[in-house]
Amino acid sequence: MPNKEIEVLTKRRTHYALSNTLPLPAAEVDALIREAIRLAPSSFNSQSSRAVILFGAESVKLWNIIRETLRKIVPAEAFASTDKKMDSFAAGAGTVLFFEDSDTIAKLQEQYPLYADNFPIFSEQSAGMAQLAVWSALSEAGIGGSLQHYNPLPDMEIAATWDLPASWKLRAQMPFGVPVAEPGPKSFVDDATRFKTFG
């Protein structure tokens, strides 16, 4: 039977080839990202997810920061593929930086000591839900993206460049823009390996 949510999840794919155009004004894309994160669930309603939304030159600046950070550790003879990857991310219209606020997590650990060890885990779950919410919302608006994880390598420079609170811990980067190529077919692990149903 048709299900709108499954249709949205099916449509959401990883797009590496992006243009720097958008089907909506940047202000509407910004509002869409904010609303998706605002509505994403979080344990104890902690609302620990934070985001920095970069458009245009600010997004390019981010990927140049990451590029130069990687240049220091990737062997020169192998850097061409890394350079190409950074170019593809910088070619998009923008990037969402996803963070989790460690101060929020610490307060919950103090407030609910029985769950203290689990709050960092709950935070990661909240981060993943926020990322999926944004990715799905962008996809529905005709905007493609991919989820990248270059943290913690560029974290300090990113925090300094955009004057971010020390409690904001970078979790992922999502370059976005209008897709200029279709993704390849998606493969799936066999259901018998992933699922068990009883009753």
From TrEMBL:
Gene3D superfamilies: NADH Oxidase. It is found in: Cytoplasm. One of its GO terms (molecular function) is oxidoreductase activity. Pfam families: Nitroreductase (PF00881). GO terms for biological process: cellular response to oxidative stress. One of its GO terms (cellular component) is cytoplasm. Keywords: Cytoplasm, Oxidoreductase. InterPro entries: Frm2/Hbn1, Nitroreductase, Nitroreductase-like. Residues 10-177 form the Nitroreductase domain. PANTHER family: FATTY ACID REPRESSION MUTANT PROTEIN 2-RELATED (PTHR43035:SF1). This is Nitroreductase family protein.
